[in-house]
Specification:
The chain is of the alpha+beta class and 153 residues long. 39% of the residues lie in helices and 27% in strands. The chain contains five helices and six strands; from the N terminus they run αββαβαβαββα. Helix 3 crosses helix 5.
């Protein structure tokens, strides 16, 4: 009985950690073999405002300039996705041209979501030159994202 209680507590603590820290490991799937799809490229205008520009997924993610690329798999109906959006935009503003921020609506790009084995959203992946470097699932604050990106620079 004691062993069962320990296992239950362990599972509960693990679940709390995963949901609060957003640290679920995704499969390491390269972007180079991804199907065609549309994405939103988040850019900062000369006036400092955030601009959303439609782009081809491959062009946005498979780059040769060694920039880190953050890809957010999301949907309009997803509450945590909507909560995460301002955090992502804040990170983009802080990082500027050193970071490429790409948003992929899973409802409009089911082939891309299937290719990357997205099973829950928000699901954020980090790439460099189309190769996966890690990521996270669920809500994560901007400071945690920046620290993760800094560790990959």
């Amino acid at each position: 009985m004691r062993l069962l209680r320990i296992q239950i507590v362990s599972v509960c603590l693990s679940t709390v950690f995963l949901f609060t820290a957003g640290c679920i490991q995704q499969p390491s799937i390269a972007a180079t073999a991804a199907p065609d799809g549309t994405a939103e490229l988040i850019e900062i205008g000369v006036d400092g405002e955030i601009n959303h520009v439609e782009a081809n997924f491959s062009d946005a993610v498979i780059r040769k300039d060694d920039k880190l690329v953050l890809v957010d798999f999301w949907a309009e109906w997803c509450g945590p996705c909507l909560r995460l959006a301002p955090e992502l935009e804040s990170v983009k503003q802080d990082w500027g041209d050193r970071l490429v921020l790409v948003k992929v609506d899973v409802d409009h790009n089911p082939e891309l979501a299937a290719h990357f084995e997205v099973t829950s959203i928000p699901d954020v992946r980090i790439f460099r030159n189309g190769e996966p470097l890690g990521g996270f699932m669920g809500y994560t604050d901007g400071n945690t994202m920046s620290a993760r990106l800094k560790s990959l620079e």
